[in-house]
Design a protein that fits this description.
The protein has 480 residues and is mainly beta. It folds into 2 domains: 124 residues, no CATH class; 297 residues, YVTN repeat-like/Quinoprotein amine dehydrogenase (Methylamine Dehydrogenase, Chain H, 7 Propeller). Helix content is 13%, strand content 33%. It has 6 helices and 28 strands. The chain has a 4-stranded antiparallel beta sheet with strand order 1-2-3-4, with no helix packed on it. Strands 5-6-7-8 form a 4-stranded antiparallel beta sheet, with no helix packed on it. Helix 2 crosses helix 6 and helix 3 packs antiparallel against helix 6. The protein starts with a helix and ends with a strand. Bound molecules: heme C (HEC). Heme C binds next to helix 5.
Length: 480
C-alpha cells in the first residue's frame, strides 16, 4: 500500500496540495509563483521538524543518529543512510516513518503529526528538498558505498588494525558465553568473536602486548554470525531476537565506528556476508528467505531482494571473493549457487542429507566447500556445478560438521560434534588434528597473520592451535 492512499483519499490530497502550496508561497512570492516555486527547508520544512521532532533529533541528542535541526545535518542522513530522497517523498525513509507506512513510526509515541504538516514535508521533498528559496535542487546523491579497496586476494596497502577502541564489556553473563560467531581478519592479526550482546576483537598473536583490542556493543538481542570484509577493513555481524527481529551492523575495523545498521527482519539473522566491493549484503535465517541488500542504492536499501527458493531455515551464505557468486545453504540440506548481483538461482546442489551448517569459498573463487550436520564436507567446483555433483565429499566429523573455513593455501579448517577441529586438503585427506577441546566445536577460523587456528566450543572456551603443526597456543575469553 502506498503511503498516499494509506493516509488520505485522493480528493483530499489534491485539495490539501493546492491549499498548502498557495498559502506557503503566496506570502513571499505572490500567486504567480505558486506553480513554479518549490517549498524549501528554511521557510517551510524546518518549522515542522522544530514543532515535532527536534526534541529528540538535535545535535546533542541524535536519536537514530539523526539531527533534524539544520539542512546540512538532515541531508547527512542517519546511521542507516540517507533519510531524504530529493524529488520523491514516497522513496524517502523519513517520509515513510512520518506517515507511519513503516517502522519505527515517528514520532515514536502515538499519533501522526497533523496532515498539513505531513503535506509540507511531502511537497518539500517532491520539489527537490531544497535548502532555501532559489537554491538549486539537490542532485540525487548516491549513497556512499563502503569503499572497499583491495583487489581480490591482494594485501591492501594499509592493513586495518583497531585503534583505541573501548574495551568495556557489555555481556552480563556469569558463565562464558559460546562463541557462536567467529571470524578472522584476512590481512591483519585480528579475530572477532560474537557472544552475548557484544563482539570482541582480539589480537591473534599469543605474544602480542595487548590481546584485547576492543569490544563492540550489540543491543538488539544476540549477534549470531560474523564476517570480515575481504579487504579486512570492515566487520559485519548479523543477529537479533528469535522469532522477533533481525538486523545487521557494519563496523569500521580501525575506528570501531558503526557505518551501517540495517535490516528489519522478523527473525534473528543466522548467516550474513558482505560482498568484496562493499555494495551488497546477503542475509539468511528462519524465515527461509535469502535477502540481498544493495547498500549503495538508497531506494533499494530498505527493500532487499527476497529470494525464496529455500524450503527451510537459511543457515549459511557467502559471496565468492571475486563478487560474482553467492552460495546459500539451508537446514534441509539444500544448497544453491547464485549470481551475486541479482541473487538469481544458477544451480541447486542437492548433495547434503542433513542441515547445511557452513559454507566457505576458496580465495580464487573457483571452489567452495559446504559442511553438514551429517558430518560430511563437500567441495564444489564452479565450472562443474551444473552436474549437481561435488568434486569431493567425505566424512569429516562424526555427529556433524558445524563450521568450516578455507586457508589462503586452499586447505580447509573444520570443527564439529566430535569435539575436534581439523585441517583437510581438497582430496579430503586429513592433514592435521587440533585436539583438546573436549567439547563440541561450534565455530572455527584461521588467522594466517598469526599462523593460528581458533575454535569456539560448547563450554564457552575459545581455543587456539598452530596451523603448521597443531600445537596448542592457549585460550581466550569469550567474555573478557
Ligand atoms: C520522543 C523522541 C522522538 C521524536 C519526537 C521523534 N523521533 Fe525520530 N527517532 C527516535 C528514536 C529513539 C529513533 C531510533 C529508533 C530505532 O532505531 O528503532 C528515531 C529514529 C528516526 C529515524 C530513523 C533513523 C534511522 O536510523 O534510519 C527517522 C528518519 C526519524 N526518527 C525521523 C523523525 C521525524 C521526522 C520526527 C518528527 C516528525 C521524529 N523522528 C520524532 C526518537 C524520536
Amino acid at each position: 500500500m502506498s503511503s498516499r492512499t494509506f493516509i488520505f483519499s485522493p480528493v483530499c490530497v489534491s485539495g490539501l496540495l493546492i491549499c498548502v502550496c498557495l498559502s506557503a508561497v503566496q506570502g513571499a512570492w505572490g500567486v504567480d509563483q505558486a506553480e513554479s516555486e518549490p517549498l524549501n527547508f528554511t521557510e517551510h520544512a524546518k518549522s515542522v521538524f522544530r514543532a515535532h521532532c527536534v526534541s529528540c533529533h538535535n545535535s546533542n541528542k541524535t536519536e537514530g543518529d539523526l539531527d533534524l535541526t539544520s539542512y546540512s545535518a538532515l541531508m547527512q542522513g542517519s546511521s542507516s543512510g540517507d533519510v531524504i530522497e530529493p524529488g520523491s517523498a514516497d522513496d524517502s525513509h523519513l517520509f515513510q516513518l512520518v506517515t507511519h507506512a513503516e517502522s519505527p513510526k515517528m514520532p515514536p509515541s502515538g499519533q501522526r503529526i497533523p496532515a498539513e504538516d505531513i503535506e509540507i514535508i511531502r511537497n518539500w521533498i517532491d520539489g527537490g528538498a531544497i535548502n532555501a528559496s532559489g537554491s538549486t535542487p539537490v542532485r540525487k546523491r548516491k549513497r556512499r558505498s563502503l569503499e572497499m579497496t583491495a583487489a581480490i586476494g591482494v594485501r591492501p596497502e594499509t592493513v586495518a588494525m583497531p585503534v583505541d577502541l573501548p574495551v568495556e564489556s557489555f555481556a552480563k553473563t556469569t558463565r562464558d558465553p559460546i562463541a557462536v560467531g567467529l571470524a578472522s581478519n584476512p590481512w591483519a592479526p585480528v579475530i572477532a568473536v560474537a557472544a552475548a550482546n557484544q563482539v570482541v576483537l582480539y589480537h591473534s598473536a599469543p605474544d602480542a602486548k595487548e590481546r584485547l583490542l576492543g569490544i563492540l556493543p550489540w543491543e538488539k538481542g544476540q549477534p549470531t554470525t560474523l564476517r570480515f570484509s575481504r579487504d579486512g577493513s570492515r566487520l559485519i555481524a548479523g543477529g537479533g531476537r528469535a522469532a522477533v527481529s533481525g538486523s545487521f551492523v557494519v563496523w569500521n575495523v580501525t575506528t570501531g565506528k558503526r557505518e551501517l545498521t540495517l535490516g528489519d527482519e522478523l527473525d534473528s539473522i543466522l548467516a550474513v556476508d558482505l560482498s568484496a566491493d562493499g555494495k551488497r549484503v546477503a542475509t539468511g535465517g528462519p524465515e527461509k528467505v535469502v535477502r540481498l541488500y544493495s547498500i549503495d542504492e538508497p531506494k533499494a536499501e530498505n527493500r532487499p531482494t527476497e529470494l525464496r527458493e529455500h524450503t527451510d531455515w537459511v543457515t549459511a551464505v557467502e559471496f565468492s571473493p571475486d563478487g560474482k557468486y553467492l552460495v546459500s545453504g539451508d537446514r534441509s540440506g539444500g544448497l544453491i549457487l547464485r549470481i551475486a548481483s541479482t541473487g538469481e538461482n544458477l544451480f541447486r546442489l542437492p548433495s547434503h542429507k542433513a542441515s547445511v551448517t557452513s559454507v566457505s569459498w576458496r580465495a580464487d573463487s573457483k571452489v567452495f566447500a559446504s559442511a553438514s550436520e551429517s558430518g560430511k564436507i563437500s567441495f564444489w567446483n564452479v565450472s562443474s556445478a551444473a552436474s549437481g555433483k561435488p568434486v569431493k565429499s567425505f566424512d569429516a566429523h562424526s555427529g556433524g560438521c558445524l563450521s568450516i573455513a578455507f586457508t589462503r593455501e586452499g586447505d580447509l579448517v573444520s570443527g564439529g560434534r566430535d569435539n575436534l577441529a581439523a585441517l583437510w586438503n581438497l582430496k579430503g585427506k586429513q592433514l592435521r588434528k587440533f585436539s583438546g577441546s573436549n567439547e563440541i566445536v561450534v565455530s572455527v577460523a584461521v588467522n594466517e597473520e598469526a599462523g593460528l587456528v581458533f575454535a569456539g566450543n560448547f563450554a564457552g572456551q575459545l581455543k587456539s592451535w598452530q596451523l603448521k603443526d597443531g600445537k596448542p597456543r592457549g585460550d581466550l575469553e569469550t567474555n573478557p
